[in-house]
Please model this.
Amino acid sequence: MDQAVTAPHSQWRVGAVIVRGGSVLSTGVNRYRNHPSKVMSLDGVSYHAEEVAIRRAGNVANATIYVARVTRSGYIGMAMPCDRCQQLLNDYGVRTAVWTTPDGWGKLRVREMATA
Model:
């Protein structure tokens, strides 16, 4: 959650940490791709935290990604990876995704998420 609170995105503060074998491979936060006033639609406004963490890490095969969201009010929110991020995690070989929910944590093997 420490990563999420550092995200520059004012509405959706999401952070991701990729771990394998007890070592942190990479971290990432969601961030603006372009200034929102320069974008005609919401598509392509931001990079998702999972995407940023994967780009920084390189080889993430068989790793676990932890994704956390902190709301504007400072509460823990739902951070299940979106369909696009689920496919990205699957494509890069991430084994497990763990994410915050308002009631705790969710967890699935990535292949199960991408095919559901």
Q: What stands out?
A: The longest strand covers residues 13-20.
